[in-house]
Structure formats: structure tokens, C-alpha cells
Amino acid sequence: MAAEMVLSHRVPHKVLSEADLEEVAQRKPPAKRGCLRKTRCSASTAKSLLFRFLPFLHWLPRYPVKDWLLGDIASGFSVGIMHLPQGLAYALLAGLPPVTGLYSSFYPVFLYFFFGTSRHNSVEVLVLTLDSLPTPCLSPGPFAVISVMIGSLTDSLMPSEKFLETVNINGTNITMVNEEQRDAARVELVATITILTGIFQVALGLLQFGFVVTYLSDPLVRGYTTAASVHVLVSQLKNVFGVSLNEHSGPLSLFMTFIEICQKLPGTNVGTLVTAIIAMVAIFIVKELNHKFAAKLPMPIPIELVTIIISTGISYGVNLNAKFGISVVGNIPSGLKPPVVPNVSYFGQVAGNAFAIAVVGYAICISLGKIFALKHGYKVDSNQELIALGLCNFLGGFFQCFAISCSMSRSLVQESTGGNSQVAGVIASLVILVTILKIGELFRDLPKAILAAIIIVNLKGMFKQFNDLCVLWKSNRVDLMVWIVTFVATLMLNLDIGLGASVVFGLLTVIFRTQLPHYSILGRIADTDVYRDVAEYQMAQEVPGVKIFCSSSTLYFANVELYAEALKKKSGINVDRLIEKKKKALKKLKKQQKKAEKEKAKRQKVLPPCRRPLWTPSLPQHAEDRVNGPGVAVIELSRAEDSAPPEPTLRTLGLPQPGFHAIILDFSPVNFVDTVSIKILKNIFRDFREIEVDVFVASCPVPVLTQLEQGNFFSSAITKHCFFPSVHDAVIHISRERHQASVSTQPRC
């Protein structure tokens, strides 16, 4: 009866009959998440879908006006003030006119109010600085990944060389870049990229593919963002030194840009350099004071906005552009522009880049949303966040916005200044709207060196991520390799190709880890049904005559052969060699038996019929050794001519016997098997049966058992009676069978 015990998670020690087994095998698997089910169209279903895609309808009617409104208003003004300088800087980083940064700070924030589920995420162009995540107090700052990705794309597809034209000035022909045409073409390109990014994100969200960002591990993201910060730094050096550069794109473009900057250092504009240094020092000092006295200040000092206002006033009063050649932002048109249909002819060129932007932007957004949700005790729907982000990008692209995500710096400010919901985001968007309509045109004399200084200072948080190298060196060398490879690949191959190479390498490390898992022999802890690795637990002792083998990984085509080799190695015997010896011994035995039969036939022909023996006695062992040679024994001939001779064993063949009679394979870590692993498992059962060792399987999950059935694993030689719910059940069964066998072989009086 114990032999009929099979896998059962629900009742670990229940003995299942064959009827129960068939019922388990025929049980239909549960419906997968995301599968569509037929439901009746009802008011409740429509209401549920409406609340799902427009979450503000759920929480806005319950909004506590008295408790939250004042905090949201104060927080909204604080975040809006931060949006203004950073929006201008992000547009410069993306190679676009400054007003597009303001557009990208207005439309997405306003739209996220309707679609987002996170109360604290501040949606913005994904150019915020993500300070080291392990620390609870993060320094505010932009994160420049998406903007620099867009900037590299505009430089490669819309370089300034395409817009050169000859202008006659005072009788002299001068070749110049038509910046107006270039900016218009780049805005059209970026708007198309943004819309395509939104389409990807909405499609992934509707298909419940929010899990795709799980392939971007934390070391990969941090190495990638650190490399992106280097790209950002190098891209802004031209605005710090006041030199003009050629536009480089593709692999090694970062190094070519840096070399060209070094070559043009003698032509540095001193006024631009001094302006950038003064701005960087002032912003850095005030940000450090904001961080140090964060608990005492009602809101951070808006040093970036103050710097922009003061520098614009000085530039306008002194006329820095005309007197010292300091480059300024230029004209910023006021008012909102009507929506524009994207140029779909760009879709084929930018599809890969748009998908990369979609995945990276969502990865940052959902990670920040979960941080705040865990802290404040509410739930973030990852797929709805993906849809919300995609709709913000899709709709924003029609209004000349570029790709957005969630900003760490502004999200932290929104939280610390009393923000409780996305009402604060609406207030912030209204601040930007007023700037676009009335104030933006006043910043036309703003030096570009000031915006470069704002971007560079806010990279401080990402450069702190170099500390990960020391932490990962001590904790996990494989994650360290992922970090370094991602960093180097992103620097050398640029942001788009570098991201793809990094993801591939990260997946290869996963395959590498599953190919080399930890193999162990388990032993029982006395007086318990607990089994642990005998190499790691002193109290764990091997069960006499039984080897319990366990792997820390699942079984599939890439590691199943290593699993079989490790099993044979851990068993302590050379299984293949012993099988080979057995085959040779059997071959020699058959020859000796044929020879003996021929001699017997000759003797029977010589003797008269009356003197022929009715049966042939077996030879003594020493006589057999003289006839057949040492190490090979001849099986006794049966007294009855019709009965078959007994099956030869290792003992009768004179071969060494294993020190155990059973092996238990612990399948608790196995979550799936494929056709290759099924074939190798069959070979394991066959090989150990050849050396008279029984193989049993314990703790096999029901889905794996179903896969084994579908793969024709079971046969007359391998039945489900070899499967047990737990290792302890298998050990009890083996011990009981062994005891019954020993009793049956005892001599009777």
C-alpha cells in the first residue's frame, strides 16, 4: 500500500489510489492570468472597467478636502517651481527647443491625474537623478536617461549638417545651420518617437505584460543609469566650455565627442566657463543645505529657479551674448500649440529605440510607485501604471512633448511638502501652464551654461552609484559583473544598443546560474522528518542504504546532463564503469555457458542412455574458477529443463556492489521539465536499475507530473508508484520494503 503513495501537495501523507491519480492527471489547469473570460455585460462590469482605466473616479469622490487640499496646493506649487528650470534643461539635453521641455512638464502631469494609480509619482521627462536607493533620504535631482537617449537619436537622424545653408553677410558667403528648420524637424521626429513609445506601453499594459521590466535587474538598471550620467556629462561639456562640436552618433560616439572637446579646449569661451562654474558652485552648496536642513525647512529652497531668474536678469542687463559671446536660449514662444499628426514614415526607423524608451521609462516609474506605495500603504497596479504612462506619452506626442516617466526628485518633494494625491500634480501643471502662456518668453536671454550647470549638479546622485562596486564585490560577484558589463557596454555601444546587450548578458547570467546549481546529498535530522544537506548540517545523517539527491535549480535542456553527472558523482560510485564491467561479464558468461552446453552435449553422446545423469550438479567455486577463470561464475543449471535460469546479479558476476540500494530524487525545486530532461531522467532510472539500485522521486509538483505524463515518461518499468509526496514518505516506504524483503529471505524450519 505504501508503494501506491504519489504526489499530493494538499494532503502530504495521504495514500492515493489509481482512480485518484487519474483524476489528478485529468484535472484541468487553472486559467492563466490575463486570459479573457466570458462575462455578461452588466452595469457592474462596465463600472469596474471604468474605475480600472480611470482610477481618479474611484478616489476623487472620497478625497478628504479638509485634510489634504492645503498640503496638495503647497506641494503643487513647490513641484511646479522645480518643473520650470528642469524642463528647460531637459529640452537642451534632448537637443530640442526649450519650450518643448515646458510642454513635457505640463501635459503629462495633467494627464497622469486621470490615469495613474500612484498618489505620489510626479510624472516628468525622465531626466531625474536617482540617488542611491538604499538610503532613505534621497537628494533631489533630475534623471537624464530618456532625454539623453532622445538626444542621441536626434543627433543621428537629424544632424545639423542636414540643415546647412549659405548666407550672404556684407558681401561674404557664410555657411550656417538653419536652426529653425532643424528644430522643427527634430520636434516632428521626437513627437513621433513619443507617440510610438506610448503605443508600445499601452499595448503591453493591455496585454498584461507589465512583468517585462523584471528582466531589468537592479544592478543592470543602476549600471545603465550610471553610464547614462556619463553620457549626459560629456554632452553638456560643450555648453560649459562654450565650444561648438560635430554631432557624433553610434558606437564609440561618446569617446569621439570627448576627444573633440579636448582638442577644442584652447578655444574655450572664458565667460561661458566662469558663468557655468559660478552657477554649479551656488546650486551645489544650496542643495547640500537643503539636504542637511530638510527637517527644518518647510520646502526646499528653489535654488535652480533663483539661479535662472538672476542669470537671466544679468544676461539681459549686461548683454552677455553680444559682449562676451555667451550662448543663450533664444526665443521661447508663448501659448499652446494645436495638436499635430505624427509623421508615420519615421516608425520603421525608430521602432527599436521607442521600445527601449518604453521599457526603461516604465521600469523607473513602477519602481518609484512601489516605493511610495509600500511606505504609505496603498496598492499600485503595475499594468495600469504602464497604460497610464503610455497614454501620457501617446497624447503628449501630439502636443510636441517628448517621452516622460516618473521623477524621483519631484516625487520626493511632493511627498515631503505635504502632497497626498495627484491633485498636487494638477496644481504643478497649472504653474507650468502660466509659465508657458505668460512668463516663458522672459527667459530668452537665459545662458545655456546655466542649464548645463543645473544638469551637471543634479548628476551627483547617479555618480554615487559607483559605490555599488564595493557593495557588490562583497555581496554578489555575478551582480557585479552585470553592473560592470552594463556600464561598459552602454558607454561604448551607446544607450540603445548598450541596453540590449546588457539585457542579453543579464539573461545569460541567469542561464549560467541554472547550469551550475548547488547539488547536495540530504540526510535526516534525528527524530524529525526534516532532511538537510549533510555537508552543511552536522545533525543531518544519511539514511543507511539510501542516497537522497537534491539540486537547487529546475531541470531543462541546458542543465539536465550536468544533473545526471552530478548525481552519479555524488553517489560515490562510477556508474558508467560498473555498467560496462557488467556488460563484459555477461558477455563472457554467455560464452562460458555455450561452451559448457557443448561439452555436456558431447558427454551425453558418449555415455549410454542408461548412464546419463538426470541432472547436472553445479561445480564447486574453486573448480569453476579453474574452468571459467577468476571473477566469473557460471549460473547453476536448473534441474527442470523447462525453467529459465535466474537473472545474473552483480554478486554472482563477482562485481562490486554499491553501498546503497535506493536513490531518492528531491524534485521540490523543479518547476518544469522539457523533452530533453525527460529523456535524461529515463536514462537515470535505466542506469541505476542496471546496478541494482531503485530510483524514487519525492516532492514532485503536480504540473511537473502532468508534463512527465504528456512526455511519455511512465512505462511498465517506470510507474507512478515511484513518486511520493515527500522525502520522508519515500524513506518510510523504502525502509518498509527492505524490511519485508529481509523477512521473506530468512530460512524456515
UniProtKB/TrEMBL annotation:
Q: Which SUPFAM superfamilies match?
A: SpoIIaa-like (SSF52091)
Biological process, per Gene Ontology: transmembrane transport
Where are the bilayer-spanning segments?
Answer: 88-113, 189-216, 270-289, 301-318, 354-374, 386-410, 422-439, 483-512
> How does this protein lie in the membrane?
Multi-pass membrane protein
Coiled coil ranges (UniProt) are 575-606
Recorded protein name is: Solute carrier family 26 member 6
**What species is this protein from?**
Eudyptes filholi (Southern rockhopper penguin)
Q: Where is this protein localized, as stated in its record?
A: Membrane
Q: Pfam families under this entry? A: STAS, Sulfate_transp
Stored CDD domains: STAS_SulP_like_sulfate_transporter
The record places domain STAS at 536-734
Note the PANTHER family from the entry. SULFATE TRANSPORTER (PTHR11814)
Keyword entries, A-Z: Coiled coil, Membrane, Transmembrane, Transmembrane helix
Provide a GO CC annotation, any one. membrane
Which Gene3D superfamilies does the entry link to? Answer: STAS domain
